[in-house]
Amino acid sequence: MAINILVVDDSAVMRSMIIRTINLCGLEVGEIYQAENGRDGLEKLEEIWVDLVFIDVNMPVMDGMEMLEAIRQGTLTRDLPVLIVSTESNEERINIINRQNAGFVHKPFTPEMLREKILEMLGVLE
To answer: Is 0.90 surpassed by the pTM of this model?
Structure first.
């Protein structure tokens, strides 16, 4: 079963790098959608269904933490698997992410690291 993914990052270069790495993970990927900030990401989630969302923390308009909170408050999205992708290493912020039932991937990452996190978030055991 192919997974559909939304990648939310204000950097087009970083979105491309994440997508390239996802494609190297060896997973069956369907559609990969993109948004450049949290508000755009939430609008996309109203239009499409995805199996997993990648969110950067630091973005203009609406940052990743605000987007994560909005996802967790949504009736249809509260259980949506979310991976926060960031260079952040602030322990308190990582604890907040964990309390919101989201995963955390530290930039930079390898396809192997990303594959493991994706499978973990989707609840898939190999």
So the answer is: yes
